[in-house]
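Help!! Second protein's tokens look totally different from the first
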Amino acid sequence: MIIIFDLDGTLFDTSTTIVPAVMQTLQEFNLPQISEEEICYGIGQPSAQFYSSISTNQAPEDISGLRERIRYYERKYLSEQGQLYSGVKELLMNLKTSDNKLVICSTGSVEYINLVIELMGVKEYFDLIKSSQGNNTKGNLIREVLTEFAADFAIVIGDRDTDFLAAQENGLPFIGAKYGFGQAELSETHFLASDPREVGYYVHWLKIFTQLQSWLEEFLLQNKIPIIGINGVDTSGKTSSAVLLENYLQKQGFKVIVIHLDDFHNPSEVRNSGSEPIQSYIDNAFNLEMICQEILNPISEGKIIDKELTLLDLDSNSFTLKKRFSIDEDTVVILEGVLLYREPLDHFFNYRIFLDISFAEVLNRAKIRDVPKYGQEFIQRYRQKYIPIQQKYLDLWRPMDRADLIINNTDFFYPKTVFKEKKSKKLSK
């Protein structure tokens, strides 16, 4: 995987050096001071444009002298107080694996880029450096990177619309570093990261999704509607990963619908019927007949669906939730939920993903997600009911054995693929 980073505003907090450098230089040249916000806004622009913006009405020779003085102070402050964004070094350490190539594409000079990554102690993580100084654009730089690595895919990470447009120009997914200097420019980008750790989260998931996309493109050649399952125990991240996959596939040009099994719950009196609570939940929690008859059976037969269903609102235990399901021959269907890989559902899936976490991690996440809403006593329901249900499901139906892709999702920000079955076995369905 090729991972292409912008430098200023993405890895390096340039405000720690350029702001004091500009302010001190303007003072020396007896020029009007400008605000920190104005200086930061210019970070990432071509250097000629940046220096012109902070020295209006200056003769070219004066701008040249101003530029050299700013560069002098910038390098001085770089060694004294320059900083990476918090978490960047950990991000690079995590991403630097044998099958990842890390690249910097920046508007700064090669000399400046090398100085920053050397002083910040991260030069060892990068396989290639590209500078767009001169007439070269970031879009062209990215094409050069792909050519040099003989690759047709990469992930681009940056904080400005120029980074996004360069990725878009090359048909590549983009992660916007909204903690950088171009927050207002990133509203249309693919994925927005609020900090470097979240950048790592998106990179890891996008890497997984590109593998899934390869299977999907092959499967669609059969002119069938693909049904992808996302399964795991409670709190394993099924819903969030399903929505993230939906977002990724939509950005790649696919039509996608996510179906949540939770929307097909039976009323509480049905779920809790029977003398044995665990088996009763397994048998009665969901209206499996409804989801099969109304959705899965028709689409498995290649039929087009456009219908509204009235479903159970869990909080009120009433049938007041209305959802529309529009599925045609071009739609990718993602069905996520617990207890999925068993009949009558299992045979519908063309690709099965399982998110693996321990039951200790289930309790940790339940404390964060459910206790604020339902109270501390809800943890006992996990111990006495939900975990035994999931354990029985794991023992009886062995969903990880059925899965095409298993993801260790214990560290939510750094999911790891731990098993991948040959997908050709599924293409015969």
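Here's the second one for comparison:
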Amino acid sequence: MKNRLLQLRKSMNDNRITNLFVTSLSDIYYLTGFTGSTAFLFVSADNAVFVTDGRYAEQSKVQIGTDFEIQIVNDYRKQLAEYAETISELYVTYDCKLPEYELLMEGPAKVVIDANDIIGKLRMVKDESELVKLREMFACAHDSFVQALDSFKPGKSELYWAAELEKNMKMNGAKCPSFETIVGSGYRGAMPHGIASDKIVANGDAVVVDFGSKKEYCSDVTRLVKTGADSNVDLVADIVYTALYKEKDAVRAGVKCSEIDAVAREYITSKGYGDFFQHGLGHGVGIDVHEKPVFNSRDETLLEENMVLTIEPGIYLPGKFGVRLEDTIVVKEDGCENLTAVFEKYIYEI
């Protein structure tokens, strides 16, 4: 954590930021290790002040290192206003809520939004301790999915499938799902964000299952479950599978995110399905399931070693079915490590 504070201060200096107000709990966890539900940070070149309330007084003593001054308050707004009175300029992170922003604007300090999201950029490159936690959650996701396969039956609802999977994730060590589990069967598989519904999975449905487990860090994986033979699904799945592997072959440090996105998009377009792949190819994963950078046509970020991103090409045919296959990879100098390699298959037949 100390190195992260040093890195933040260097980035603040590079961006001419003298004082930074941090409100995101994910950013706060990244910098301090604090896992409570309410806190904020003030960081300058000389001071780092962690502010929370009495509910977390004892927890703070355990989780917050000596690099931070701990302040226990009864009134967050009063503390924020008093701090703002002591400085001439304050940068706020992009997720600062409107009430806090308006309160700061009422004071004498010049308030500036950190449009560069300097903490978000620091979080893009994972250290070894973070990769260990990520690998743990991908092992949890794999074990939970395999255990749930016996419960994935036609005649049960998508919600039932999701509940079985999420139950297993918690029993295998996850704190919670990384996001609301997507189970899209049959025609609902053509909804890229089709979270589990009360639709009954029918015999012959192709089912998109997109899920992840979280305990400090997130996993994210998508697999296809087939409940019957369908040559049309097999054809589309083969295209998506090939696109996924072309993408992984293209990943290495120094390549632009937009160039990686283009590989899958051009291949799927060449097969006649370009109009049915309408989302970005992937996104960063870490403390949050969606982080920087992203694989899309607009992100010009150069990949760096130990960035962690999903690769999730898909083809969605409205009223029919959808296919998405997703791996999460760690960028390396000459390629990538596949965190989802713990899964034996991309397509499971039941």
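Reply: Different proteins will give different token patterns, so don't panic. Residues 314 and 324 are 4 Å apart (CA to CA).
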